[in-house]
Amino acid sequence: MNYEWKKEEKEIYLPKAKAVMVSVPKQRFISLKGKGDPNSCEFSEKISVLYPAAYSIKSQYKKYCKSTAQDVLYDNYSVNPLEAVWDMTEDGKQSDKLIKSELIYEMMIAIPDFVPDEVIAEGIANVKKKKPNPLLNELSVITMEERLSVQILHSGSYDDEPASFKLMDQFCQDYNLRRTYDTHKEIYIVVKTVIQANLKTVLRYDVFPK
């Protein structure tokens, strides 16, 4: 059976275009850290490394399912969308305007919890052999538990995200919630489009009751 995040994790990955509160469970990710403008070549190169690693892990998992004597509920899965946690350098935080070169990010792709740790390690080792890239040595496997969060589906240009963040902030004010950190997460649901109005991005940040 194929595990599809769009069906199984709809609540956390496919919200409506209005702010909602959600409880995000602990997840495992493969991730790469970086700093700078997301429009830069460095950012694009990191993405081009992360995706092959994710698909290599998926391929290794399918081999594992065929060779194991254990019963598995899922013998395949759909690769999750790209996500990124965004922060700003201290210099960037002191500026009145957004300086993209001062952005700090950790991009990641979630790996289903039923994929064994050894399969992840083997998948990463395989991609290092087949598609060697120094950035693969910076690849990490992390766990993250966001717990109580507020999120919204933003449609359109990334530069227009402040309007959606205002809706989230208003939601927090209405429900007596406060942001836990200055950081936020973006999940890139629709990215392959030349029309910016068609971009779909989940915006999310951690909160706690006041």
From TrEMBL:
Regions annotated as coiled coil: none
Alphabetized InterPro entries for the sequence: GyrI-like, GyrI-like_CCH_Lin2189-like, Reg_factor_effector_dom_sf
Organism: Robinsoniella peoriensis
Source species taxonomy: Bacteria, Bacillati, Bacillota, Clostridia, Lachnospirales
Residue span, GyrI-like small molecule binding domain: 21-190
The protein's name: GyrI-like small molecule binding domain-containing protein
Residues in the signal sequence: none
